[in-house]
Amino acid sequence: MIKGAVFWDDRERHFVQLNNPTEEILRKAVIEKRKGFLETCGPTSALNCLAALGYFVTILTPGGYKPQPEEVLTDFFNDPSNDREFERIRAGIQIANIPENRVPQYYPYAVRTVFEADAEFRWLKNWKEVTALLQAGAAIQLCLKVPGHYVAALAYDIEADELVYNDPWPDRAGLMNKGFNERMGKAEYEANVEGYVIVYPKRRIA
User: Fold this and answer.
1) Which of 65, 113, 177, 189 has the least C-beta neighbours within 10 A?
2) For residue 68, what is the domain's CATH number?
3) Which residues contact 125 (CB under 8 A, 6 or more apart)?
């Protein structure tokens, strides 16, 4: 039996990080032999959590263009007008030197402001607690130690004792299903996941 976010198994709600404007700018910078790309895994995994929970994330401009929602969330993190609030949330970060989308404590404020969504940062490493949250219908943003990358845990397979997660980087080495409904066991979780989570609680679908 698999329990998780209401739309955990919906492939249409799997967002990837390779096709948004920020990544395209950064990819072209690589060609010009400047810094690397693959920067938007955090905002994209947040969108995977929100979409799996049934949040409305479509953004429409007056002219009809639909900006990619993970791009809008990335912009929010890196808009200087938000720096004062981010500094209040977590003091001591050198905002001038690091993309704000890398800082996990900022996510609850960002998703609440952009998508009116609930989220909570927690220091949490315990497998039993994480799997219990998933069984209760939450979605959880995790950060891998290697390669330093955010993913969205959306469900828990009770019989297999495995997390089911969506990876926003479909070309990452070792993935079995292009990032959709990938699996992670307890040993991998304990060895390669940072000791914090961003929890997106179950929501009532109208």
Assistant:
1) 65
2) 3.90.70.10
3) 190, 193, 195, 196
> Which residue range is the domain that position 37 belongs to?
2-200
Candidates 118, 114, 80; CA nearest to 99 is 80
| pTM > 0.85: yes or no | yes
Q: Give the helix, strand, coil percentages of the chain, each rounded to 5.
A: 40, 15, 45
Q: What is the DSSP letter of 16?
A: -
Number of structural domains, the chain?
Answer: 1
* Residue 206 within a domain: no
Is residue 116 situated within a structural domain?
A: yes
Bigger pLDDT: 116 vs 32: 116
Q: What is the pLDDT of residue 140?
A: 98
Q: What is the pLDDT of residues 190-205, one digit of tens each?
A: 999 999 999 999 987 6
